[in-house]
Every structure is written in C-alpha cells, then in structure tokens.
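Side project, low priority. Logging it here so it doesn't get lost.
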Amino acid sequence: MTNAVWIPISENLPEDDERVMAFIPGNRVFLPGKELAFEVREVIVLRFCKDYFAQNIEKREKHGPHFWAGEGNSNHFFGDVTHWQPMPPSP
C-alpha cells in the first residue's frame, strides 16, 4: 500500500466536480440523536465545485469563488479545506 500525498489547496486544485478526500482542521461533525454531541473528523469526502460563486459577488468576496459540496449537511466553504487528495482506487 502506498501513502497518498496531501496536496495544499494553495498549490493545486481538483478538477471541477471531482470527489476527493479533504482535510479540514478541527472539523466537527454533530452526532444524530445526541444533543450537541460531536466528534472531530478532519478527513471527509467532498466534491469540488469550481467557480460556484462566480455570479454571486458578495459570497465570492466573503468565501472565495469555489465551494466544497458534501454528503448530507457536510458542505464547506472553500477556505475550510487546507489539503486534498484523490480518492483511493476501489478494491
């Protein structure tokens, strides 16, 4: 098994609509059915949305032009993610 390399978003970005493993420092995921209980999950699967806020000047200036779409309610603004890597191959 090879170790995957984490790519800083400042150096390179995924292709538009590409699903990747994303690193979000201190990312809290609230646990269903447990009032305000959470766990830290710093690596999650997200889809890169290039130029998502291209037409929304206010959001683009506040959050950046791109967006990370998640599954369920795990969407993130562009600046939340510091590093990413391609999805590993299926078994």
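Brief comment: Helices lie at 57-63.
Revisit when time allows.
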